[in-house]
Fold each of these.
Amino acid sequence: MDSEQRFLLAFDAGGTTIRAIIYKEDGDELARAFRTTSEIRSEQGAVEHDPEELFQALLAAGREVLSKAAIPPEKIAGAGITVQRATFCLWDKKSGKPQCNFISWSDVRAGDKAFKMNRSCIWNGMKIAAAVGGFITRSPMLTATGMLSFVTDHVLVRLCWLFEQRPDLRQAAKRGDLLFGTIETWFLYRLTGNRVHATDTSNAAATSLYNPFEMKWNAIFCRLFSIPMRMLPEVKNSADQFGFTDPSCFGAPIPITALIGDQMAALFGHGCFTPGDVKISQGSGSFVDINVGRRGKVSRRGLFPLIAWTLRGKPVYMLEGSVATAGRLIDWLGNGIGLSDTPAVLNDFASQCDDTEGVVFVPTAAGIRFPYFNPKARGTIFGLSLSTHRRHVARAVLEGIAHRVVDILEGIEKDTGMSIRRIKVDGGVSRSNVLLQAIADLSGHEVERPDETDMTARGTAALAGLGAAVWKDVEELGSMARSYEHFHPRFDHNQRREKRRRWNEALNTLVKFYH
């Protein structure tokens, strides 16, 4: 092995798995390790994680991957951390001891609190003033504030709920005894021996406590909802100097040079550096992210701008829409009704026919988001007949996911005036050729799938390399994916219009039914 070769370490923390992957400087993967973690579901709607369990899993995965790679920690030029976003915890400022579990982004116990916050007279007065100001000035910040409705996805909502449930935590926060952090902040804090309390702009912007336009914590929100700002972490670039791991972690200090949210990391890993570039991650849900450039854009129908990443003080913004069920829907098809239990099997069934024979499946089993945002909606099948076969249903399911993805793409184009340049995909469900061909046919855009479907860790490693000066800029970096398979649109304009017309009829029927 070249004695001068440098390596990059990426940590990827999802809901139940923490992975550690080492990449060579040329982008080739050298070794990987993982640990599983548990979810704590102590009551209806609760989804929590044990902070210490998460950190110990990170340490174990990191130590194992270094052992597998057979390289000393001194050879790691930079380490990056990517995490599921908007999952937070509070810990004691002096001892570093967690004062509660991590409350997951998918925890819905704060639903009533979100309802009350949205009904607040003060908040609604602010929204009206912001909407009027946004209309007059065309300020995206005011426009975004004017359309914002709180949901349990928002850290702000769950934090307010937690303070109501635990008045002792509210008092401790007011005294300045607590620190707040999402998962990457907790990992950074522990890895650096409780020395560094920081996050990056992508994770901060996903909390709803951060103003992505002014690039600072939202003092107005914090005052309005009594959130002590001194417990919030420092916000840095996504590729930056975050300190060094304590020698007790891996045997020698390793520079931590990148923090980023998971979907943003995948967007970066695909090399989606130009406005109009789209990344679709197909996992348990489908996340559609579009690079909107150096200025935040607002969808007037409910998509709030996020920061994809920040390099040298310059942010790149994105808009994100999601389909709540994709992989979870496929799990249900297998475990619930015995149709198919993996994307590969579902794809095989669906590929046995060229059409759905009139069957339309609307994949809204966990509610519908953009642009309707109705959590009461449920999955619906239209067009069943006595000649319907499971292969038709299988194709209808995949086409339904594709239609919802295209709904988001068309909505973003309409709301922002942007044009989509290219679409790249990743995630386990993207292994389905039928699904990707359907997205290409229904959107009219070429779809590209990399030779590996895990781009989150790659993007994190790429950012870590930038933070460690392995590469000087994104132009030198390019995309870390080796090659892409291309799915070209096959429908002509009339075929596409007819398919979309029939879909919209079914979707409008469902929306009215669950109104």
Amino acid sequence: MTDREQAPSWVINPHVPSVARMYDYYLGGKDNFAADREAAEQVLSIMPYVREFTRDNRAFLSRSVRLIADAGVRQFLDIGSGLPTRENVHQVAQQSAPDSRVVYVDNDPIVLAHGRALLAENPLTTVVQADLREPKAILDHPEVAARIDFGQPVAVLLLAVLHFVPDDDEAASIVARLRERLAPGSYLVISHGHAGRVSKEDEILVTSTYKATKTGNLTPRTADQILAYFEGLQLLKPGLVPVEAWRPEYEDVKPNWDRAGFLGGVGHLT
């Protein structure tokens, strides 16, 4: 940890659910505690398909990173990266282009511990402690500066993270401040919680479960609100869609707009 890097804003508490560890549980991982599993099961009791759309979101990440790496981008900044799992950004990007540089950003101490252990022998990839709500601190972080040249194209990834910023104006400001540092040829990848046509009662039950976590409020947004994050960018086809329908491997995938889940899109700065 560098002198300029702050200590994590909270310590690992196995008795308080963590969003990152709940997500790990949805994906079938083992880096979670009883409190995480209990909270995740509460969500699953209301929306049993959460595991499915969480895996769909992970697959969307892989497809978008592979497309961007194949397009020639060699820098990736993954903000709110969560716990390492299969097909992490650096693995997908470096499979396409071994010289790809990747910086993971998270503020959960367990993510930092696992990420640093995994990446100890990968000089092109690192994980730093910083908060999504402080984009300038992320962009100016010395370890980010050591690997990311913002004068060249970079892919900024914001997957399943902006919905934990409850204030609409703040969320929009975060994206705008990140976007304004991007060079032509850069990409912005976003997935975001979307309530679909789930009942208001069920939405409240799910969001109340997330309020018990350190991250706090979960705020689903409409397609129009999420689309606004791509202002000034060329939105790649098929646009903003349920993540399972974003350039799927199989042609017969049909988007389910009624079900709660993640909407995803990829913007290109031309």
